Amino acid sequence: MPSTTPTDRLASVQDRYGAAAEAVEAELCCPVDYDPQYLKAIPAEVIERDYGCGDPSRLVRPGDIVLDLGSGGGKICFIASQVAGPEGRVIGVDATPAMLDLARSAGPKVGAAIGYENVEFRRGHIEDLSLDLDALEPWLAANPVSDVASLERLAAEQQRLRRTQPLIADASVDLIVSNCVLNLVAAEQKAQLFAEIARVLKPGGRAAISDIVAEVDVPQALQDDPEHWSGCISGALREDRFLDAFREVGLVDVEFESYATEPWRVVEGIAFRSVTVLAHRPPAGCGQGEQRGDAVTYRGPFASVTLDGGQVLERAKPTEVGARTFQRLQTESLAKHVVARASDGSVQADSDAGCC
Question: What is the pLDDT of residue 70?
Answer without folding.
Answer: 96
